Amino acid sequence: MKHIAKIILTVLLLPGLSGCEQPSTSDPKEGNEVSVMLEVLSEQLHTTRAIAESDIDDVNIFIYSDTGGLKQHIYASGASHKIDIAPGRYSIYVAANIHQDMGDLSLTRLQSYAITAPTDEGTLTMIGSDTFTIDGSGQVLPISLKRHAAKIAYNIAVDPAAGDIEISSVQLCSIPDREYLITDLTAPTEPASGFHDSEIRKFPDGSQRANGIFYMLTNRQGDVSSIASQDQKNPDKAPKYASYLCIRGRSGENKVVDFVVYLGSNMTTNFDVLPNEAHTYNITILSDSETDTRITSYLFEFYSSWPRSPYCIPGDYGEFSVRNGNRSDHTFTGQLEVTQGDAASFRYGDGGAWHEGALHDVYIPAKSDARGDMEYTPALIKKGVNQTLAYRLTITDEQGGGSNTVRNWPISHHPSLTSN
Protein backbone atom coordinates (compact mmCIF):
# COMPACT_ATOMS: atom_id res chain seq x y z
CA MET A 1 0.00 0.00 0.00
CA LYS A 2 1.50 3.36 -1.01
CA HIS A 3 0.53 6.77 0.31
CA ILE A 4 1.03 9.93 -1.76
CA ALA A 5 0.93 13.58 -0.75
CA LYS A 6 0.44 16.27 -3.39
CA ILE A 7 1.57 19.79 -4.04
CA ILE A 8 -0.72 21.83 -6.28
CA LEU A 9 0.92 24.64 -8.26
CA THR A 10 -1.63 27.16 -9.55
CA VAL A 11 -0.26 29.52 -12.21
CA LEU A 12 -1.94 32.96 -12.38
CA LEU A 13 -1.19 36.07 -14.46
CA LEU A 14 -0.31 39.24 -12.62
CA PRO A 15 -2.74 42.08 -13.40
CA GLY A 16 -1.80 44.00 -16.52
CA LEU A 17 0.54 41.32 -17.94
CA SER A 18 -0.04 39.73 -21.31
CA GLY A 19 -0.65 36.02 -21.56
CA CYS A 20 0.60 35.70 -25.12
CA GLU A 21 4.32 35.31 -24.51
CA GLN A 22 5.70 31.94 -25.67
CA PRO A 23 7.83 29.96 -23.20
CA SER A 24 11.49 29.70 -24.03
CA THR A 25 13.29 26.37 -24.32
CA SER A 26 16.49 27.97 -22.95
CA ASP A 27 16.93 29.70 -19.58
CA PRO A 28 13.87 31.93 -19.08
CA LYS A 29 14.66 35.66 -19.06
CA GLU A 30 13.97 37.72 -15.97
CA GLY A 31 11.01 40.11 -16.19
CA ASN A 32 7.56 39.57 -17.68
CA GLU A 33 6.95 37.28 -14.73
CA VAL A 34 3.82 35.41 -13.73
CA SER A 35 2.69 34.70 -10.19
CA VAL A 36 2.87 31.06 -9.16
CA MET A 37 0.89 29.90 -6.13
CA LEU A 38 2.03 26.62 -4.59
CA GLU A 39 -0.61 24.92 -2.46
CA VAL A 40 0.97 22.20 -0.34
CA LEU A 41 -1.47 19.39 0.39
CA SER A 42 -1.00 15.98 1.94
CA GLU A 43 -3.23 12.96 2.02
CA GLN A 44 -4.62 12.49 5.51
CA LEU A 45 -3.61 9.18 7.02
CA HIS A 46 -4.12 7.65 10.42
CA THR A 47 -1.36 8.93 12.70
CA THR A 48 0.43 6.14 14.56
CA ARG A 49 2.52 6.37 17.71
CA ALA A 50 4.23 9.78 17.82
CA ILE A 51 4.80 9.94 14.04
CA ALA A 52 2.64 12.34 12.03
CA GLU A 53 2.78 10.41 8.76
CA SER A 54 1.07 13.01 6.56
CA ASP A 55 2.05 16.28 8.21
CA ILE A 56 4.19 18.80 6.34
CA ASP A 57 6.01 21.15 8.70
CA ASP A 58 8.28 22.88 6.20
CA VAL A 59 9.27 22.78 2.54
CA ASN A 60 12.36 23.50 0.49
CA ILE A 61 11.31 24.36 -3.09
CA PHE A 62 13.91 24.24 -5.84
CA ILE A 63 13.12 25.55 -9.35
CA TYR A 64 15.59 24.69 -12.11
CA SER A 65 15.60 25.85 -15.73
CA ASP A 66 15.73 23.54 -18.74
CA THR A 67 19.51 23.75 -18.72
CA GLY A 68 19.74 22.79 -15.04
CA GLY A 69 20.47 26.21 -13.58
CA LEU A 70 18.90 27.08 -10.24
CA LYS A 71 16.33 29.85 -10.77
CA GLN A 72 14.81 30.01 -7.30
CA HIS A 73 15.02 28.34 -3.91
CA ILE A 74 12.34 28.92 -1.27
CA TYR A 75 12.31 27.71 2.33
CA ALA A 76 8.99 28.19 4.08
CA SER A 77 6.35 26.71 6.32
CA GLY A 78 2.65 26.68 5.74
CA ALA A 79 0.50 25.47 2.87
CA SER A 80 0.58 28.38 0.40
CA HIS A 81 3.64 29.86 -1.29
CA LYS A 82 3.48 32.63 -3.88
CA ILE A 83 6.46 33.19 -6.16
CA ASP A 84 7.10 35.31 -9.24
CA ILE A 85 8.80 33.65 -12.18
CA ALA A 86 9.10 34.19 -15.93
CA PRO A 87 7.16 31.86 -18.23
CA GLY A 88 9.25 28.93 -19.38
CA ARG A 89 9.96 25.27 -18.82
CA TYR A 90 11.13 24.30 -15.34
CA SER A 91 11.93 21.29 -13.22
CA ILE A 92 10.52 21.74 -9.73
CA TYR A 93 11.68 19.74 -6.71
CA VAL A 94 10.00 19.92 -3.31
CA ALA A 95 11.60 18.45 -0.18
CA ALA A 96 9.36 18.40 2.90
CA ASN A 97 10.19 18.02 6.60
CA ILE A 98 13.94 18.58 6.33
CA HIS A 99 13.53 21.00 9.27
CA GLN A 100 16.20 23.37 8.01
CA ASP A 101 16.93 25.72 5.13
CA MET A 102 18.89 23.61 2.66
CA GLY A 103 20.29 26.67 0.90
CA ASP A 104 20.76 27.36 -2.80
CA LEU A 105 21.75 23.90 -4.04
CA SER A 106 22.65 23.07 -7.61
CA LEU A 107 20.81 20.12 -9.08
CA THR A 108 23.92 17.96 -8.67
CA ARG A 109 24.23 18.87 -4.99
CA LEU A 110 20.53 18.27 -4.44
CA GLN A 111 20.86 14.80 -5.97
CA SER A 112 23.69 13.96 -3.57
CA TYR A 113 21.99 15.39 -0.47
CA ALA A 114 21.75 12.68 2.23
CA ILE A 115 19.09 12.22 4.91
CA THR A 116 19.24 10.13 8.07
CA ALA A 117 16.95 7.42 9.35
CA PRO A 118 13.59 8.56 10.79
CA THR A 119 13.06 8.74 14.52
CA ASP A 120 10.03 7.62 16.49
CA GLU A 121 8.76 11.19 16.83
CA GLY A 122 7.89 14.09 14.56
CA THR A 123 7.38 13.93 10.81
CA LEU A 124 8.61 11.93 7.84
CA THR A 125 10.88 13.32 5.12
CA MET A 126 9.20 13.57 1.69
CA ILE A 127 10.37 14.40 -1.83
CA GLY A 128 8.62 15.09 -5.14
CA SER A 129 9.53 16.52 -8.52
CA ASP A 130 8.12 17.16 -11.97
CA THR A 131 8.76 19.24 -15.07
CA PHE A 132 6.30 21.90 -16.19
CA THR A 133 5.85 24.53 -18.88
CA ILE A 134 4.65 27.71 -17.18
CA ASP A 135 2.83 29.90 -19.69
CA GLY A 136 0.54 32.00 -17.53
CA SER A 137 -2.65 30.20 -18.58
CA GLY A 138 -3.78 29.32 -15.06
CA GLN A 139 -2.64 25.70 -14.99
CA VAL A 140 -2.86 23.51 -11.91
CA LEU A 141 0.44 21.66 -11.68
CA PRO A 142 0.41 18.70 -9.25
CA ILE A 143 3.59 17.29 -7.68
CA SER A 144 3.29 14.03 -5.75
CA LEU A 145 5.33 13.86 -2.55
CA LYS A 146 6.49 10.42 -1.46
CA ARG A 147 7.74 9.56 1.98
CA HIS A 148 11.30 8.28 2.20
CA ALA A 149 10.35 5.99 5.04
CA ALA A 150 8.70 2.61 4.78
CA LYS A 151 6.21 1.66 7.45
CA ILE A 152 6.71 -1.77 9.03
CA ALA A 153 3.74 -2.95 11.11
CA TYR A 154 3.82 -6.22 13.05
CA ASN A 155 1.04 -8.25 14.66
CA ILE A 156 2.45 -11.23 16.53
CA ALA A 157 0.47 -14.00 18.21
CA VAL A 158 1.38 -17.31 19.81
CA ASP A 159 -0.75 -20.19 18.56
CA PRO A 160 -2.66 -21.87 21.44
CA ALA A 161 -1.13 -25.19 20.39
CA ALA A 162 2.41 -23.81 20.79
CA GLY A 163 2.45 -24.43 24.54
CA ASP A 164 3.92 -21.98 27.02
CA ILE A 165 5.86 -19.75 24.62
CA GLU A 166 5.81 -16.08 25.64
CA ILE A 167 6.74 -13.01 23.56
CA SER A 168 9.50 -11.08 25.35
CA SER A 169 10.59 -8.45 22.83
CA VAL A 170 10.83 -7.42 19.19
CA GLN A 171 13.55 -5.55 17.32
CA LEU A 172 13.97 -4.34 13.73
CA CYS A 173 17.50 -5.21 12.57
CA SER A 174 19.77 -4.08 9.73
CA ILE A 175 18.27 -0.63 9.14
CA PRO A 176 20.13 1.74 6.78
CA ASP A 177 21.58 4.79 8.54
CA ARG A 178 21.15 7.21 5.64
CA GLU A 179 19.94 7.56 2.07
CA TYR A 180 20.06 10.10 -0.73
CA LEU A 181 17.17 12.55 -0.85
CA ILE A 182 16.75 11.63 -4.53
CA THR A 183 17.06 7.87 -4.49
CA ASP A 184 18.08 5.58 -7.34
CA LEU A 185 15.70 2.71 -6.69
CA THR A 186 17.32 0.56 -9.38
CA ALA A 187 20.60 0.24 -7.45
CA PRO A 188 21.11 -1.87 -4.31
CA THR A 189 21.58 -0.12 -0.97
CA GLU A 190 25.29 0.44 -0.42
CA PRO A 191 26.97 -1.10 2.64
CA ALA A 192 28.79 2.22 3.04
CA SER A 193 25.46 3.76 4.04
CA GLY A 194 25.89 2.05 7.40
CA PHE A 195 23.35 -0.08 9.23
CA HIS A 196 21.98 -0.20 12.76
CA ASP A 197 19.36 -2.04 14.82
CA SER A 198 16.35 -0.42 16.44
CA GLU A 199 15.73 -0.25 20.15
CA ILE A 200 14.55 -3.49 21.77
CA ARG A 201 10.84 -3.22 22.51
CA LYS A 202 9.97 -5.31 25.54
CA PHE A 203 6.61 -6.76 26.48
CA PRO A 204 5.21 -7.77 29.88
CA ASP A 205 5.83 -11.26 31.23
CA GLY A 206 3.34 -13.76 29.90
CA SER A 207 2.60 -11.83 26.68
CA GLN A 208 1.26 -13.98 23.86
CA ARG A 209 0.32 -11.09 21.58
CA ALA A 210 2.29 -8.04 20.50
CA ASN A 211 1.90 -5.34 17.87
CA GLY A 212 3.56 -2.11 16.84
CA ILE A 213 5.12 -0.08 14.04
CA PHE A 214 8.66 0.74 12.92
CA TYR A 215 9.75 3.27 10.28
CA MET A 216 12.89 2.78 8.21
CA LEU A 217 14.68 4.08 5.12
CA THR A 218 14.67 2.05 1.93
CA ASN A 219 16.81 -1.10 1.93
CA ARG A 220 17.17 -2.63 -1.51
CA GLN A 221 18.73 -6.08 -1.24
CA GLY A 222 17.12 -7.67 -4.30
CA ASP A 223 15.99 -11.23 -4.93
CA VAL A 224 17.38 -14.66 -4.08
CA SER A 225 15.92 -16.91 -6.76
CA SER A 226 16.99 -20.15 -5.05
CA ILE A 227 14.44 -19.66 -2.24
CA ALA A 228 11.50 -21.95 -2.96
CA SER A 229 9.40 -21.69 0.22
CA GLN A 230 8.77 -19.35 3.13
CA ASP A 231 10.82 -21.37 5.63
CA GLN A 232 13.88 -20.96 3.35
CA LYS A 233 13.81 -17.18 3.82
CA ASN A 234 16.30 -17.55 6.62
CA PRO A 235 19.79 -16.33 7.70
CA ASP A 236 21.49 -19.02 5.60
CA LYS A 237 20.08 -17.66 2.34
CA ALA A 238 19.36 -14.00 3.05
CA PRO A 239 21.66 -11.20 1.79
CA LYS A 240 24.07 -9.97 4.44
CA TYR A 241 22.40 -6.59 4.93
CA ALA A 242 18.76 -7.61 4.51
CA SER A 243 16.36 -6.15 7.10
CA TYR A 244 14.48 -8.44 9.47
CA LEU A 245 12.34 -8.57 12.59
CA CYS A 246 13.88 -10.43 15.52
CA ILE A 247 11.18 -11.68 17.89
CA ARG A 248 12.47 -12.96 21.22
CA GLY A 249 10.41 -15.38 23.26
CA ARG A 250 10.63 -17.74 26.20
CA SER A 251 9.74 -21.39 26.12
CA GLY A 252 9.34 -23.09 29.45
CA GLU A 253 11.22 -21.70 32.42
CA ASN A 254 14.72 -21.16 31.03
CA LYS A 255 14.76 -21.44 27.23
CA VAL A 256 15.23 -18.24 25.22
CA VAL A 257 14.10 -18.42 21.58
CA ASP A 258 14.72 -15.97 18.70
CA PHE A 259 12.35 -15.99 15.70
CA VAL A 260 13.61 -14.20 12.56
CA VAL A 261 11.26 -12.76 9.91
CA TYR A 262 12.92 -11.16 6.87
CA LEU A 263 11.24 -8.21 5.16
CA GLY A 264 10.51 -7.92 1.45
CA SER A 265 7.81 -7.57 -1.17
CA ASN A 266 6.95 -11.25 -0.80
CA MET A 267 7.48 -13.97 1.79
CA THR A 268 10.02 -15.92 -0.25
CA THR A 269 12.52 -14.54 -2.76
CA ASN A 270 12.46 -10.75 -2.33
CA PHE A 271 14.34 -8.66 0.26
CA ASP A 272 13.48 -5.11 -0.89
CA VAL A 273 11.93 -2.44 1.34
CA LEU A 274 11.12 0.60 -0.79
CA PRO A 275 10.17 4.20 0.09
CA ASN A 276 6.56 5.09 0.87
CA GLU A 277 5.56 1.43 1.25
CA ALA A 278 3.47 0.06 4.09
CA HIS A 279 4.30 -3.53 5.07
CA THR A 280 2.14 -5.43 7.54
CA TYR A 281 3.43 -8.71 8.99
CA ASN A 282 0.87 -10.95 10.66
CA ILE A 283 3.06 -13.49 12.43
CA THR A 284 1.84 -16.61 14.22
CA ILE A 285 4.35 -18.52 16.34
CA LEU A 286 3.52 -22.21 15.99
CA SER A 287 6.40 -23.79 17.94
CA ASP A 288 9.99 -23.37 19.05
CA SER A 289 11.18 -26.24 16.88
CA GLU A 290 14.68 -25.65 15.54
CA THR A 291 14.02 -27.77 12.50
CA ASP A 292 12.83 -24.38 11.18
CA THR A 293 16.11 -22.56 10.43
CA ARG A 294 14.50 -19.18 11.15
CA ILE A 295 14.49 -20.17 14.83
CA THR A 296 17.50 -20.23 17.17
CA SER A 297 17.57 -20.70 20.93
CA TYR A 298 19.65 -21.09 24.02
CA LEU A 299 18.98 -22.81 27.32
CA PHE A 300 21.22 -22.71 30.40
CA GLU A 301 20.72 -25.14 33.26
CA PHE A 302 22.28 -24.38 36.64
CA TYR A 303 23.37 -26.96 39.23
CA SER A 304 25.01 -26.38 42.61
CA SER A 305 25.93 -28.55 45.57
CA TRP A 306 27.79 -28.55 48.87
CA PRO A 307 29.20 -32.06 48.77
CA ARG A 308 30.73 -32.38 52.23
CA SER A 309 27.74 -31.46 54.34
CA PRO A 310 24.29 -29.89 54.19
CA TYR A 311 25.52 -27.57 56.93
CA CYS A 312 28.19 -24.89 56.99
CA ILE A 313 31.18 -26.30 58.84
CA PRO A 314 34.75 -24.99 58.85
CA GLY A 315 36.49 -25.70 55.55
CA ASP A 316 33.29 -26.60 53.73
CA TYR A 317 32.99 -25.63 50.09
CA GLY A 318 30.42 -25.74 47.31
CA GLU A 319 30.52 -25.85 43.58
CA PHE A 320 28.23 -24.91 40.70
CA SER A 321 28.04 -25.79 37.04
CA VAL A 322 26.21 -24.27 34.08
CA ARG A 323 25.12 -26.62 31.33
CA ASN A 324 25.25 -24.70 28.07
CA GLY A 325 22.49 -25.34 25.52
CA ASN A 326 23.28 -22.44 23.20
CA ARG A 327 22.20 -23.02 19.58
CA SER A 328 22.52 -19.40 18.53
CA ASP A 329 25.27 -16.92 17.68
CA HIS A 330 24.85 -14.99 20.93
CA THR A 331 27.67 -14.39 23.41
CA PHE A 332 27.13 -14.15 27.15
CA THR A 333 28.29 -12.69 30.44
CA GLY A 334 27.47 -13.91 33.92
CA GLN A 335 27.30 -12.44 37.42
CA LEU A 336 27.20 -14.42 40.64
CA GLU A 337 25.59 -12.46 43.45
CA VAL A 338 25.04 -13.16 47.14
CA THR A 339 21.44 -12.24 47.94
CA GLN A 340 21.27 -13.43 51.55
CA GLY A 341 23.87 -14.10 54.20
CA ASP A 342 27.24 -12.61 55.14
CA ALA A 343 28.69 -11.48 51.81
CA ALA A 344 32.09 -10.70 53.36
CA SER A 345 32.43 -14.39 54.29
CA PHE A 346 31.64 -15.63 50.76
CA ARG A 347 34.35 -16.52 48.26
CA TYR A 348 34.06 -17.48 44.58
CA GLY A 349 36.77 -19.54 42.89
CA ASP A 350 37.19 -19.43 39.11
CA GLY A 351 39.82 -22.17 38.94
CA GLY A 352 42.73 -19.76 39.14
CA ALA A 353 42.03 -17.54 42.14
CA TRP A 354 39.57 -16.92 44.95
CA HIS A 355 37.51 -13.71 45.04
CA GLU A 356 35.72 -12.35 48.11
CA GLY A 357 32.56 -10.30 48.31
CA ALA A 358 28.95 -10.18 47.19
CA LEU A 359 29.27 -9.77 43.38
CA HIS A 360 31.49 -11.64 40.91
CA ASP A 361 31.86 -11.78 37.14
CA VAL A 362 31.55 -15.32 35.80
CA TYR A 363 32.92 -16.33 32.41
CA ILE A 364 30.23 -18.02 30.30
CA PRO A 365 31.61 -19.68 27.14
CA ALA A 366 29.53 -19.32 23.97
CA LYS A 367 29.19 -23.05 23.38
CA SER A 368 30.65 -25.00 26.32
CA ASP A 369 29.73 -25.48 29.98
CA ALA A 370 30.96 -23.35 32.88
CA ARG A 371 31.73 -24.12 36.53
CA GLY A 372 32.95 -22.43 39.71
CA ASP A 373 33.74 -23.07 43.40
CA MET A 374 32.26 -21.39 46.47
CA GLU A 375 33.16 -21.04 50.15
CA TYR A 376 31.09 -19.61 52.97
CA THR A 377 32.95 -19.32 56.29
CA PRO A 378 31.45 -16.87 58.80
CA ALA A 379 33.42 -16.83 62.06
CA LEU A 380 30.20 -17.05 64.05
CA ILE A 381 26.82 -18.22 62.84
CA LYS A 382 23.93 -16.16 64.20
CA LYS A 383 20.35 -17.20 63.80
CA GLY A 384 18.39 -14.81 61.61
CA VAL A 385 21.56 -12.97 60.53
CA ASN A 386 23.87 -15.21 58.54
CA GLN A 387 22.67 -18.74 59.06
CA THR A 388 21.38 -19.00 55.48
CA LEU A 389 23.31 -18.36 52.29
CA ALA A 390 21.42 -17.57 49.09
CA TYR A 391 22.96 -16.70 45.74
CA ARG A 392 21.92 -16.32 42.13
CA LEU A 393 23.62 -16.37 38.75
CA THR A 394 22.42 -13.86 36.14
CA ILE A 395 23.32 -14.65 32.52
CA THR A 396 22.92 -11.89 29.93
CA ASP A 397 23.47 -11.99 26.17
CA GLU A 398 25.19 -9.23 24.19
CA GLN A 399 21.90 -7.59 23.21
CA GLY A 400 20.73 -6.95 26.71
CA GLY A 401 23.51 -5.03 28.40
CA GLY A 402 22.98 -4.68 32.13
CA SER A 403 19.26 -4.10 31.90
CA ASN A 404 18.11 -7.03 29.83
CA THR A 405 18.71 -9.95 32.19
CA VAL A 406 18.11 -13.17 30.32
CA ARG A 407 17.47 -15.22 33.41
CA ASN A 408 17.71 -14.67 37.16
CA TRP A 409 18.54 -18.11 38.48
CA PRO A 410 17.04 -18.80 41.92
CA ILE A 411 19.78 -20.86 43.53
CA SER A 412 19.17 -23.29 46.38
CA HIS A 413 19.61 -22.00 49.93
CA HIS A 414 22.44 -23.42 52.00
CA PRO A 415 21.34 -23.94 55.60
CA SER A 416 24.01 -23.78 58.27
CA LEU A 417 24.41 -24.45 61.99
CA THR A 418 23.24 -21.62 64.17
CA SER A 419 24.57 -20.05 67.32
CA ASN A 420 22.58 -17.94 69.76
Number of strands: 34
Strand portion, in percent? over 45%
CATH class of the largest domain: Mainly Beta
On the 0 to 100 scale, the average pLDDT is 80
Structural class: mainly beta
Low-confidence stretches: 1-26, 43-49, 401-420
Give the number of domains: 3
Pfam families: DUF4906
Domain DUF4906: 211-283
InterPro entries: DUF4906
Protein name: DUF4906 domain-containing protein
Summarize the structure.
The protein has one helix at residues 107-111; strands spanning 4-12, 34-41, 50-52, 58-65, 70-77, 80-85, 88-96, 114-116, 121-123, 126-134, 140-147, 150-158, 166-173, 175-176, 178-180, 195-196, 201-202, 209-216, 219-223, 244-251, 255-262, 270-273, 278-285, 295-298, 300-305, 318-324, 332-340, 346-349, 354-356, 359-362, 370-376, 388-397, 407-410, 414-415.
Descriptive overview:
The protein is an all-beta fold and 420 residues long. The chain contains one helix and 34 strands. Helix content is 1%, strand content 48%. The protein has an eight-stranded antiparallel sheet with strand order 5-4-7-10-11-1-2-6, with no helix packed on it. It has a five-stranded antiparallel sheet with strand order 17-13-20-21-24, with no helix packed on it. Mean pLDDT is 80; it is low at 1-26, 43-49 and 401-420.
